[in-house]
Design goal:
Blueprint (H helix, E strand, L loop, with lengths): L1 H14 L13 E12 L4 E8 L4 E6 L2 H12 L8 H11 L3 E11 L2 E10 L2 E7 L1 H11 L3 E4 H7 L1 E2 L6 E4 L2 E5 L2 H6 L8 E6 L4 H5 L6 E5 L2 E2 L3 H14 L3 E6 L2 E6 L2
Parallel strand pairs: 4-7
Antiparallel strand pairs: 1-2, 1-7, 2-3, 3-8, 4-5, 5-6, 9-10, 10-11, 11-12, 12-13, 12-14, 14-15
Length: about 260
């Protein structure tokens, strides 16, 4: 009876999956691995960090709290006392003798990432539209490869192997402002760097600089890269005065650092 029920569930689920084999060579993809799950203080949401095999670029995807917890459990090999949603889906696929072949993050539309989950059953491969967070969790469970569209990775990835990935001056830690981050903060300006963190007790904190601010100028100098931010700060330090132009909550304001 149990075998019959499992077979019935398998047949019902597979009947809704489109039978589509992944097309090879259409769009190039970069293989990535999950570096970890962190918390974006600026956006006040968890973020999963994907990194290419060479460790040159990071690809952040903002996710929900429940998905972040599920990923952390997979990364630390800490099973839940009772099956969670992804655990249940994993158990069903195992009973159906279906495995996760690979995951692809394919595009960004309206500030939302889209992914495809490829399931293999015998010689057939099924492509299923899915959220990247759910897909990554299932890839971790099956130790399946994760890919990101090469054009998307090049556009939204953050360089890790150079000095320009992150920078810090006067208690302000900044990072490169990718198009995805700019869209998330509704920033339509030409240049800027994102404040990732403000050190507690620093003069910058006392002056009102906050994580999530976008710094567009240091004194009168435009800054569009971390390197430019650092150089502008170093030049201003010699003069003994600091004035920042900041974008926050849809408004521009000026801050004089103490």
């Amino acid at each position: 009876m149990r075998r019959y029920v499992v077979s019935a569930i398998a047949g019902s689920l597979l009947s809704f999956l489109p039978i589509v084999c992944p097309s090879e060579g259409a769009v190039p993809f970069v293989e990535v691995e999950v570096r970890g799950v962190s918390f974006d203080a600026a956006a006040q949401t968890p973020v999963v960090i994907l990194v290419d095999k060479e460790g040159k670029k990071a690809f952040p995807i903002w996710i929900g709290t429940q998905e972040a917890v599920a990923m952390e459990k997979e990364l630390t090999n800490s099973p839940s006392p009772r099956p969670m949603t992804h655990d249940l889906f994993h158990s069903i696929l195992l009973k159906m003798q279906v495995r996760v072949k690979e995951v692809r993050v394919v595009e960004l539309k309206n500030n939302t990432y889209y992914a495809s989950l490829f399931l293999a059953s015998g010689k057939e491969v099924f492509e299923v539209d899915a959220r990247p967070s759910d897909s990554i969790i299932m890839a971790l469970k099956y130790k399946a490869p994760i890919y990101v569209s090469t054009p998307l990775f090049e556009q939204q990835g953050v360089v890790l192997n150079g000095k320009n990935a992150f920078g810090e001056r006067n208690g302000i830690r900044v990072q490169e402002l990718t198009p995805a981050l700019a869209s998330q903060f509704n920033f339509k300006g030409r240049k800027g760097v994102l404040v990732a963190e403000v050190m507690p007790g620093s003069g910058s904190e006392a002056s009102g600089v906050k994580a999530g601010d976008i710094i567009t100028r240091v004194n009168s100098r435009e800054v569009g890269e971390v390197r430019e931010f650092e150089e502008a700060f170093d030049t201003s330090r010699k003069k003994g005065s600091f004035g920042l132009s900041i974008f926050r909550d849809g408004k521009s304001l000026d801050v004089n650092l103490k």
